[in-house]
Write a structure and sequence with these properties.
The protein is an all-alpha fold and 97 residues long. It has helices at 2-26, 31-54, 61-76, 81-96. The radius of gyration is 20 Å and the shape is flat. The chain crosses the membrane at residues 36-56, 68-96.
Length: 97
């Protein structure tokens, strides 16, 4: 019985994640909708990263903010994502010394 419950829960969880991938692939959207959909990963990434920026050192949040600012500047400069992350990490590291 427990196996059937696990299989059922996995199917119910999987369907809403897999089905839209096949449906959206065949649909064509207006350009403004495509721009909005392309921005979603960046918004989600920002929502995941920003709390971490503030909690680098809870009693000194400016350290994380400076690391985030360096990452923004490096990203605007057009550097590779890996270099942006390394730049932010080194900035926070040197500020914590």
């Amino acid at each position: 019985m427990i196996i059937l419950i696990i299989i059922g829960m996995s199917i119910v969880t999987m369907l809403p994640r897999v089905v839209p991938a096949f449906i959206i692939e065949k649909m064509q959207f207006r350009p403004w909708v495509n721009r909005w959909l392309n921005a979603i990963p960046f918004a989600a990434l920002g929502a995941l990263i920003f709390p971490g920026i503030l909690s680098v050192k809870p009693d000194e949040p400016h350290i994380g903010m400076l690391g985030g600012l360096v990452a923004i500047v490096l990203a605007i400069a057009g550097l590779n994502v890996v270099l942006v992350v390394i730049g932010a990490i080194f900035t926070v590291y040197f500020l914590l010394l």
